[in-house]
């Protein structure tokens, strides 16, 4: 439940951060990211798990569904700050924020597709999956979220116009709406995470609320608080004792490394020309690499165990025993890898800048020395050499060693030669 509420608040914030009518403007990019690319991420993650742990593919589909969505908590940590604002285009930051908010809720269809196949099997599973997941959970939650966001925006604007709401309540109104929607959707059994994202975007559809809270720092504060709190808790619940036997460390390492490398990056690089928001291969490289796995994976792992406990599935095998430790390991790897990427990039830039600067200074010093030696050679036979350092003039001295020492002073500004 802790991960559920963290996700609900984070996807609500992600929806609010997007510009005016964003889902309508960038629907083509979102369709590609949430359709073909997310589906391939799911299938590739499942294939990695199948080959590494030698379990049936249908069981691996349930575990792969947990790590398919990108995480809004880690995404916000990467897409906010000086590095992102300096090096990542705004359009790319927006599309990655929208994707991380939307695909967390859209993890349900992938998870329940595998669960229904194990539970029911055949064509009946497909029919149940369509109406129970896509129609009831996804479509209904989108309608509820859009309606709640619209009504909440109108009510808040009306209350603010007449002074019926104070500043603190105004700032926290979106968070209150997220918690309300979690309760409502949980009661009726729809997708609360996707509902909160749609509600957040509907809440700021006209950009009024986003502009009003833009300079308050509320969203950055909440992001920092939630990410710090959750990952402190996550570090305390990682089942380290489970990594033995079937979950041997080398198997875990293979899954983590392969998931980081081929789960997302190859698909984004191959299909980026079909995504209008990703304009070149450099953007595609960034978007493909920064697909972090975090809170949403833990949430879906717990949801998988819950569903398997409620419905005894003979085809489920032992995935209830391995899904949580395996997902925790992948999340730990993602936090480590994606967390250190930005510092390493900045460190590399500084090292290259330092080396380039040192090379330029050495080249300039050699050129200056050659010029000075040539002049000194002429001064012995033709006249005198004056070295002017600031307002002090050393004249009549043509001794090469001494003049070179004077010119080498950091304060030298000019050399004057007299015949």
UniProtKB/TrEMBL annotation:
GO terms for molecular function: sodium:proton antiporter activity. It is a multi-pass membrane protein. The chain crosses the membrane at residues 30-53, 106-122, 129-151, 171-200, 248-272, 284-302, 322-346. One of its GO terms (biological process) is sodium ion export across plasma membrane. It is found in: Membrane. Residues 2-347 form the Cation/H+ exchanger transmembrane domain. InterPro entries: Cation/H_exchanger_TM (IPR006153), Na+/H+_antiporter_fungi (IPR004712), Na+/solute_symporter_sf (IPR038770). Pfam families: Na_H_Exchanger. Its main location: membrane. GO terms for cellular component: plasma membrane. Keywords: Membrane, Transmembrane, Transmembrane helix. This is Cation/H+ exchanger transmembrane domain-containing protein.
